[in-house]
Amino acid sequence: MEPASWPRTEEAALAEQQRLRPLVEPQGPAPAPGALVAGVDVAYDDERNTVAAAAVLLDLGTLEVVEESTAVGPIAFPYLPGLLAFREIPAVIDALAGLRRRPDLVVCDGYGLAHPRRLGLASHLGVLTGLPTLGAAKTPFGFDHQDPAPERGAWSPLLDRDSGEEVGRAVRTRAGVKPVFVSVGHRIGLTEAVSVVLALTPRYRLPETTRQADSLCRRTLAARLLIDS
After folding, report:
1. pTM over 0.90
2. Residue 78: phi, psi to the nearest 5?
3. For residue 113, is pLDDT > 80?
4. Is the pLDDT of residue 226 over 50?
5. How far apart are CA 147 and CA 156, in angstroms?
6. What does the DSSP assignment read for 38-90?
7. H/E run at residue 186
8. Phi, psi (5° rounding) for residue 159?
9. pLDDT at 225
10. Would you state the pLDDT for residue 70?
11. What is the 3-state secondary structure of 90-150?
């Protein structure tokens, strides 16, 4: 699954993040109408050292699923805060490789520039694949924000408490419901990333890409564990 050079230690992973960080392109257009947007997610069974990844391709205009792909394999890296990408990316890349059509954008259930070293899963994945990516996370990962106004579409900046840098936005995708935390991954701007997330959330708090990928990777893992049991 992972290449032979994949980091195996915390020190090597931190060095790799520092190497890749300058390669992030934090600007770019939103996908065109009719674009294909992929959602990716993973599910784990740590006891069996198994990870299942899913990539689900949706039509951005209709939000209909047009293609799915999964990959199952061993977990590539131990759990360490701020280094989650090293656990997930090998399986995610395998799942993306199974798609017949190339996504115009990939939406990750996680962070991009909203990361202590500005290289969360979405940014890391974008640099490695060259694909435009964004992160849409459920929590603010230690960054500060004011609660946005209650109406759908309202947002507030997600700020680094030490530098004051805007690393993302807290976005209200449903009126009166907790926001999601949107950050640039690679080759898309923050305003454009927010617009895509709102297009992907007409009914639910989380993007439809994330909902579909989460369901598929969980089902895939459950089926694999049933076969192996």
Report:
1. yes
2. -70, 160
3. yes
4. yes
5. 7
6. EEEEEEEEGGGTEEEEEEEEEETTT--EEEEEEEEEE--S---TT-THHHHHH
7. strand 180-186
8. -120, 140
9. 79
10. 98
11. HHHHHHHHCCCCCCCEEEECCCCCCCCCCCCHHHHHHHHHCCCEEEEECCCCCCECCCCCC
